[in-house]
Amino acid sequence: MDSFAAAPEMPLEFASIDDAIEHLKSSHPYAIKLDERDGYDGIIVDADQLLNIARVIRDDLGFDYLSSATAVDYLGEGDHMEMVYHAYRTSGGGALVFKAQTDRENPTIPSLTSVWRGADFQEREAWDLYGIRFSGHPNLKRILMWEGFHGHPMRKDWREAYYEEDQKPFDSRWPGGHVHRSEEKNVFGKNVSYPQDIDLNRLMDSSESAVYESLGLGVDIERVMDKDGFETNELVVNMGPHHPSTHGVFRMVLTVDGETVTSLEPVMGYLHRNHEKIGERNTYLHNIPFTDRLDYISSMGNNHGYVLAVEQLMSLGRRYNPPTYRCEALRVMMVELSRIVNHLWAIGFWLNDIGAFFTPVLYFIQERERILDFFEAVAGSRMMCNYMRFGGLFGDLPERIKSVTNLTNDRVRDYNTMQFLTEMINERIPRTIDELELLLTQNEIVLERSVDVGVLSADDAINFSAAGPLLRGSGVAYDIRRAEPYSIYPELDFDIAVEDEGDMYARYRVRVQELRESVRILRQILPRLEATRGESIWADGKPGAYAPRVPHGEAYGRVENGKGELGYYIVSAGGRGGSANPWRYHVRAPSFINLTPLGHMSKGHKVADVVGILGSIDIVLGETDR
Amino acid sequence: MELNLQELNATEFPVPVELEDNIAITSLSQLYNWGRRNSMWPMLFGLACCAIEMIATASSRFDFSRFGFEVMRATPRQADLMIVSGTVTKKMVVPIVRLYNQMPEPKYVLAMGACASGGGPFKEGYNVVSGMDKYLPVDVYVPGCPPTPQALLYGMIALQRKIDGQSIANGDDVPWYGVGPAEPTPVPVLGPDIIDPRQMDMIRRQAESAADAPLLGSRELPALTQMVAAKVETAAPVAEAAPADVDALNVVLPAGAAPWAEAEDIREKRRLRALARKALRASRRAAQAEGE
């Protein structure tokens, strides 16, 4: 290839992103142009050539991991729809961002599921919420809303029943202060609105039948021969959305041959609470408490990803100071504590799923409560911490931890904060992990249930865009804290937990190792906190602006959260002064994308293993459905 | 648990002291309620963030078994209490109503957290139901986002108090003390948007009148309702625009003042009163300062 001349020394798989783009430009000169909008980077690919170029990006350039694929509606800003893809190398490094544009009236883009199977759910989401058709997608059905829903709600011109204005703060609330209840202004007294041409006589609830039809399941019971030649029934089993082991309101539809699963399709959207639509109406600051409610087990980690993304955008502007060292150290401490909470919770509930009903969980929750006490004392809330701010934090550590701050005679809990932390990090948590390992790691039943169950090979894991322990349990040493470091992780000493087997047990081992690594990080954080005592937690020494103006541009901030790679794709479409509200606010949710390989992993296993496999992925529905 | 007959004994019938541990004279209602309140089985059923706090409440540190909420049952057939723990979405409300219908009577609903009580932070979302009470009768609301375990416990104890007050003698008090089985709650339909069967007539009338007048509750709803509100405020004849049999406007906005105008009045009064109180406090403080 002639284009090799551009970078003769370096094999293409290791070429820098700029060189990679140069290579693409020389091999596809007419299909690619640089994205030259203010604050944007990457390339815009001709939609007709997208599939070919995606193959080149994956195979020749080595960007084998498709992290995120999402749509943006540029109504009034160019009047087109855009799909944005972020591809990474599992060997580490930054993203190759490529975009494909299409018109708003009849948006069609070729599906990339044949290149990255991880694009499957993300493209379905783009179809559901934006109405972009993906030619070549094997199962282009709605995923979050139900089949038959009116319209594609994330489009900029689609308005919800309680619509007031495009952007907050609403005039009615501030400065006017005429608060009303939205129900009072709706004719039906609830959050509904119907299209003009609604015909109740022909009204059919097709949401259920659509679920089954899309799986190719016309009949419920079919007579088949099993592998030994016995006549048996293949039947369709529905699990969820109300089921004790689906970790919330997740639903699976499986076909089983006897007890063996022959196919499994995840059905979701039962907790789709329109995070992104609300996020686009909110100001940047408003969104921080909303991120808490994504992965509600580890809210601190969610905060971190979001503030990183917005800080990336703010750094494009002139007046921006990075957070102070103490702020970064506190952030890392909080995030690692949430990772411990998350993994304890995940392991506990996974054990629930494979039969150790609630006994291990009780012990893990006990430890979690200690950490939550600390969060409550620092951030004011046990679970929804709402702790991080752009360029800073909500507050510094308090001197003492009390159970209830307004209770003066509290004799239950009253500790010195640093002592409490030291004891927790050096004694209590390691003791819990030891105990956990002693009872579980070599436990006969755990081994019996989890070894060789739900296997996902390394290549599949990458291709399915799996993230977090699911990816590392398949032998891919990919941890964003090392692959594309952020905050103060480069200077901290820790290892990436990896296991090669790719089964449920490997994921469990990865989580246990990560618990230990988190403790190792926390031990390094403690002296850093002592050393920076008294330093401001704010970049400028004073709290940041209430409503920051964020410069024009796009940013993708991602962190290694307990469940995997959590990314925020944010577009700011302000004028010269910047904007107070995001134009696009997308969450790349690990729980959502990690479900893509669930059907693949469950095939051939027993029904009872399916809940275990789901538990080993570790999902939380707030993040899956957003 | 030790059986404490004294808490069951109705005070108007004195029981000799030596028999207090053996005999209680009470009413049948009280006996029923006593049994019910102390053996509530919640459904093992989590929706969102609040479910995590519910699990924390169930586990060892807070432990709601202490108050008789002994075990959580995964099947609605064995549960008395549905804790709606989290955001209710339009997609999820269909199974929730179905689950509620499957619960045997007596059954109670506790709306845990801001979302289940009224939509919460996600209220404006297109897929979010503005509170469980739009579809099911709710007994206790617990505020918070999420409520702390203490708050949830308080709500559950409040429910027990509520049960204490129910009576067999008054058949209208609660449906399960009446005659015959209760009507099941109609299950919502997922059409172009969620449809509550109880509002079917209203939707139909609006659809019929769509030919003459713009349909209320269409996608352009807010602008339209503001128009309607303006119309009502200027006391224009309401039924004029629509055919005579269409009273959708009357259903929501009775002729006269807009419903929120009254609220505005109350708010204004409240503000004036607060100002008066403030002035009074200020004068008292001034007087005190003078005295010193």
Describe the structure in your own words:
The complex is a heterodimer of chains A (about 625) and B (about 290). Chain A is α+β, with helices and mostly antiparallel strands and about 625 residues long. Chain A is about 35% helix and about 15% strand. Chain A contains 19 helices and 18 strands. Chain A has helices at about 15-25, 50-60, 120-130, 205-215, 275-280, 285-290, 300-315, 325-355, 360-380, 415-440, 445-450, 460-465, 470, 480-485, 505-530, 590-595, 600, 605-615, 620-625; strands at about 30-35, 45, 65-75, 80-90, 95-105, 110, 135, 220-225, 230-240, 250-255, 260-265, 390, 390-395, 400, 415, 555-560, 565-570, 585-590. In chain A, strand 1 and strand 2 (about 45) form a beta hairpin. In chain A, helix 8 (about 325-355) runs antiparallel to helix 15, helix 10 runs antiparallel to helix 15 (about 505-530) and helix 15 (about 505-530) packs parallel to helix 18 (about 605-615). In chain B, helix 3 links the parallel strand 1 and strand 2. Chain B is built from nine helices and five strands; from the N terminus they run ααβαβαβαββαααα. Helix content of chain B is about 40%, strand content about 5%. By secondary structure, chain B is mainly alpha-helical. Chain B has three domains: about 5-35, no CATH class; about 50-175, Rossmann fold; about 195-250, no CATH class. Chain B starts with about 25 loop residues before the first helix and ends with a helix. At the A-B interface, helix 5 and helix 9 of A face helix 2, helix 3, strand 4, strand 5 and helix 6 of B.
User: Would you tell me the structural class of the helices and strands of chain B?
Assistant: mainly alpha
Q: Based on helices, strands and strand pairing, what is the structural class of chain A?
A: alpha+beta
Number of strands of chain A: 18
Placed side by side, the strands forming the largest sheet of chain B appear as 1-2-3
Q: Specify the biggest β-sheet of chain B.
A: 3 strands, parallel
Fraction of residues in β-strands of chain B: 5-15%
Number of domains of chain A: 3
Radius of gyration of chain B: 25 Å
